[in-house]
Structure formats: C-alpha cells, structure tokens
Amino acid sequence: MNLSDRVTDLPESGIRKFFELAEARDDVISLGVGEPDFSAPWAARTAAIDSLERGRTSYTSNRGIRELREAIADHHRRYDQAYDPGDEILVTTGASEAVDLALRALVDPGDVVAIHEPTYISYGPGVELAGGEPLSVPTRAADDFALTRERLAAAGAERADTLVLCYPNNPTGAVMTGEQLAAVAAFCREHDIQVIADEIYAALTYGRDHESIATQPDMRERTVVVNGFSKAYAMTGLRLGYALGPAEAIDAMNRIHQYTMLSAPTTAQYAALEGLRSCDSEVAEMVSEYDRRRRFVHSRFREMGLDCFEPRGAFYAFPDCGGDDERFAEELLESQGVAVVPGSVFGEGGEGHLRVSYATSMRELKRATDRIETFLTERRQTP
Amino acid sequence: MSDEREVLDVLTTNARESTADIAAQTGLDEDAVEEAIASLERRGVVHGYQAVVDWDRAGTDRVRAIVELNVELDRETGYEEIADRIAKFPAVEALHLVSGDYDFAAEVAGDSMQDVSGFVSEQVAPIPEITQTVTHYVMETYKDGGVRFGDRDEDDRLSVSP
Predict the structure, then answer these.
(1) Which backbone phi and psi does B66 adopt, to 5 degrees?
(2) In this structure, are A191 and A250 located in the same domain?
(3) ipTM of the complex
(4) pLDDT tens, B114-150?
(5) Are residues A239 and A366 in the same domain?
(6) What pLDDT score does B60 carry?
(7) Which of A31, A76, A104, A348 lies at a C-alpha separation of 20 to 30 Å from A86?
(8) Residues belonging to chain A with any Cβ–Cβ distance to chain B shorter than 8 Å
(9) Alpha carbons B75 and B131: distance in angstroms, whole number
(10) Considering its fold, how many domains does chain A have in total?
(11) A37/B162 Cβ within 8 A
(12) Are A349 and A118 in contact (CB under 8 A)?
C-alpha cells in the first residue's frame, strides 16, 4: 500500500515497547496502566443494558442526546463553568475525539501549538495530523511539574497560536492552583494564544477542588475544555467524552464530527447520563480509594528513598529514579516483574522519572512497592 | 474528614491492615492511628473485627436462617428487654428491630436445619412475649459484609497503556 507521509512521519509510541515487554511475562504486577481498575458504576451499566433492551441502537443527534448535554451542563456548575447545552457542548467518542476535533478545528497548517511536557502522548501526533507544529514546553520537578510563565517564555511559547493544557496531569499527577492558572492565562491573553484544556482527570483531585483555566478572566472565549467519563466514571471502554466551549468553536468541531463520526456511541450516552444522574456517591468512593492508595504509594516511596513530589490529581505518582528511566524501568521489569512507564515516553522533562499508576488494588500496590524496595536495595549494593 | 473517620474507612475495607499501612494510607502518623483505634474501641464505635467467610467454600456444614419474630409488648416489657433475652443466645448472630410486618429480624446459625429449627422452637418461641416466628433458611449467599462472593473478576486491562 502507498501510505501517506502524514502517517509514516508519525513517531512510534514509546509506550508500545513497554507494553510488549510486560505482555511477554505472566508474573507481572503492572503499575503501568492508564485506566481505572474499577468497573463503571452498576447503575450506569444497567442504564446501558436497558437502552439496548429498549432498542435504542440508532444514531443520536450529532451533538449528543439533549438530556445528556443538559446533565453535563449542570454537572459543570461545580467547577464554576456555565455552558449552554444547546450550542456550547459536543458529546464525542471519548475525550480523545474531542482533543482531535479541537486541534483540527483550531489549528491551521504551520500554526504553532505549545504542549507542556511531560504529558499525555496524543497531543503532539494530534497537532501533526492537523498540520500544526508542536512546540515542547518542558515543565520541571522543581515546580512540581506545574506550567509556569517562565517555562512558557523559556520555550519561546509567545509565538504559539494554541496551548494544550492537561491538568490534573498524566503522567505526573500534578495539578495547577488558581494562582498558577492565572499566570498562564495572563500569558495567553498577552500573546493571543487559545487553549485546549484537557480536564479528563478533573474529578480526581485530592485535598483541593479542580480549577479550570476557562474560569480565569477573559479565558472562556478562547478555551475549549475537554472532559469525559473514562476516568471519573471508570468507563474507558465505553468511549464517551465531550467538549465545552464558545458556540463558534463547538460549531466548527461539530462540522468535522458530523462527517467523521456522526454521533458518539448511543449506548454509552445513556450510561453516561445515568452516571451523572445517580452515581456521585460511587465516584466519591472511588476518589477516596485512590486517595488512600496515593498516600500509601507516596509514603512508601519516601520510606525507600525514592524522591517523589506529592501528586494531587489523577492516579499517578512520578518519582525521580535518579538516572536513566528507560533502563531503570526495563531492569525493574526484568528482575522484579513490576511494570512502570519510563517518564521520557511522555516527552521532554519526563526523563529520569517513572510513571507509577496507583489504579490498582491496595494488595497489589503493597506487593509492587515491596518489590521496588528490594530492587533499590539490590541496586545500591551492586553499583 | 476526621482522623477517626479516615481510619474507619480503611478498617471497613480491610480490618487486617497494619498500623503502619493505615498510617501510610491516611497520612496520619502511627501513634495517631493507634490512638484513633483505641478511642473507637473504647467508645464502642468499633465492636470487633471479623473475617467475611463464604461458608459454602469452607466445606463446613453450617446453616443460616433469617427469623422473623413478632412480639407483644406489655407494661413491664419493652423491645429492649426482649432483644436482650434473644441476643444472649450465641446462635443468634445478628438481631435487628425492624419496621414493617414483623418486629425483630434475627440471623441464626447452626450446624443443621434441625439444629436451627430446634433452637427457634425450643429457645426463642417459648419466650412469653413472642407471638409468632417465621424461619427463612438461607439457600445461597451472594454478598456478605459488603463483599461479593462468587468468582473473582479478572483484571482484563492492558498491562501498559497511555
């Protein structure tokens, strides 16, 4: 086949290699998983089954069923976000589709798109597929991996047209406070930069509530917020996300969506609607469980002398492994059967770190952290 | 959330957690955890720690029944007194005063159905205030103590994903 340059130019994902290494063994405890270990709340699952029993297997309106958009609008009041379900919300096939649509709707060929790194791996390729030029903005452990004005300036981001912002962050577990967001927002206003804010982990914050950059002064009209049900509602496989933004941007995204997707999966839309209607307590229970694991993992890392800032969001810790992260991860897998993802996979600034997912049971976390401790002890003895 | 509440949340998930692990999960220091547990026990908030057992799998003969009890109160005798008399029998594993068609729901365990029915007819029914008993034998237990029985769910997630 004659493949397009567009696709042959795309880099291979660094995750792939670790997936293959881990899959080749059957005794692996994996802390490399980027999705919840829970199943979706039972009420949401029964709503999906019920919708199938009623024969709701046709397309929905392009933008998603009206009740779902209304429920999403209500839900977002908790983040001080107000969007009109009529023309400011688009339901998509996973948050991934929303990110892709936002990039294709906002980015012209040659446009510069700033992406803070380390971050989720899809934005760079998404920008390239949209014809834009990704500009890496490394964040630093010294700032707890928050994006700062200084880092934006150091990377030359004033020439960016768009910024992709992902907090709470995968892979670092970092969150941004209102004050930190205000500085980034000021930079964006000064240099006329629009923002795609991937807030898929908004519900998973610990000790403080999520704040959105879209609620900063004059940012609503220049921001597309992406969110979804995968993480908070443990619905990754149902593929349901959405975008919130000014009608102009949502219209543009919907124009692509209606040609390429038509509508998000109908069954998943009914599951999501029930999730919003009745599953707050299940989500809260999952958040408390993640919080216990988060504290456990963080405290164990400190005990074993693995330097790690306290993550405040998502379900990842991002310890400093004190050297070559890829080699560390490979050797850890080889000698102890524990899979983690090397930080450098997530871009500049991630090197020397490991992404450790605590979306796994406490029992497994205990075994895995004990093995990591053994690994560190052995390494220290045999330099 | 209060310290005690945090400790309770861990204990109700897994009562066998060590003090060190509870401390790690709650962010409290070990002394504070010990203190919270001691206080919970002293005040009768935590009455005990028990395993959640699937007796069918344990291969032990054991029969459980839920027994509905209707009572008639008189001037001298209230629910408390009757409950106290019933709860003293070791075969009564749980006892609740409930709303609805009957007064008490008792969970009774024994080695056999005869054992349980003998206990109900010889020990419980003769209590003067009890006017009626209805015994429901447990045929199958699907969930107990908040834990679902049956086959454990396999983790079918990809071992490494972005």
Answers:
(1) -105, 125
(2) yes
(3) 0.84
(4) 999 999 999 999 999 999 999 999 999 999 999 999 8
(5) no
(6) 86
(7) A104
(8) 13, 15, 18-19, 22-23, 28, 30, 32-35, 37, 39, 120-122, 170, 288-289, 292-293, 295-296, 299-300, 339, 341, 360, 362, 366
(9) 16
(10) 2
(11) no
(12) yes
Going from the N-terminus, what domains does chain B have, and what CATH number goes with each? 3-42 (1.10.10), 57-139 (3.30.70.920)
User: Which residue type, as a one-letter code, is found at position B143?
Assistant: K
Q: How far, in Å, CA of A381 to CA of A375, rounded?
A: 10
> Is B58's pLDDT higher than 70?
yes
* Residue to test with chain B: of A121, A231, A292, most B Cβ within 10 A: A292
B155 compared with A273, residue with greater pLDDT: A273
User: Using 50, 70 and 90 to split pLDDT, how confident is the model at B1?
Assistant: low
Q: For residue B76, is pLDDT > 90?
A: no
Closest-approach residue (CA) in chain A for B154:
A37
- Omega before A171 within 30 of 0, i.e. cis: yes
pTM of the model: 0.93
Q: How far apart are the first and last CA of chain A?
A: 50
* SS3 of residue A283 by DSSP: helix
Q: A52 and A197 share a domain?
A: yes
DSSP three-state, residue A224: strand
- pLDDT value at residue A349: 92
Residue ranges in chain A modelled with pLDDT below 50: none
Q: What's the pLDDT score for residue A358? A: 98
Domain termination site, one of A237, A252, A278:
A278
Contacts of A67 (CB under 8 A, 6+ apart): A273
Do A170 and B162 make contact, defined as CB atoms within 8 angstroms? yes
- Verify that A55 and A190 share a domain, yes or no: yes
Burial of B59 (0-12, 13-18, 19+ CB in 10 A): exposed
Q: Give the pLDDT confidence score for residue A12 in this predicted structure.
A: 86
What local confidence, expressed as pLDDT, does residue A3 receive? 96
Cα-Cα-Cα-Cα dihedral of B120, B123, B128, B129, to 10°?
-50
- Rounded to an integer, what is the distance from CA A223 to the centroid of its chain? 17
Residues A21, A356 contacting (CB under 8 angstroms): no
Cβ pair A296, B14 in contact under 8 A: no
Tokens of A205: 């914050």
Query: By residue range, what is the domain housing residue A360?
Result: 5-40+281-381
A279 CB burial (10 A radius; 0-12, 13-18, 19+): buried
Q: Which residues of B91-119 are buried (b: 16+ CB within 10 A; e: fewer)?
A: bbeebeeeeeebbbbbebbbeeeebbbeb
Cβ contact (<8 Å) for B161 and A32? yes
- Which CATH number belongs to the domain containing residue A320 in this structure? 3.90.1150.10
Q: Phi and psi (nearest 5°) for A85?
A: -60, -20
Residue type for A275, please? Answer: G
Token pair of A30 as six digits: 């994996």
∠ CA A321-A360-A22, nearest 5°, is 60
Instruction: Please identify which residue in the block is written with the tokens 């290699």.
Output: A17
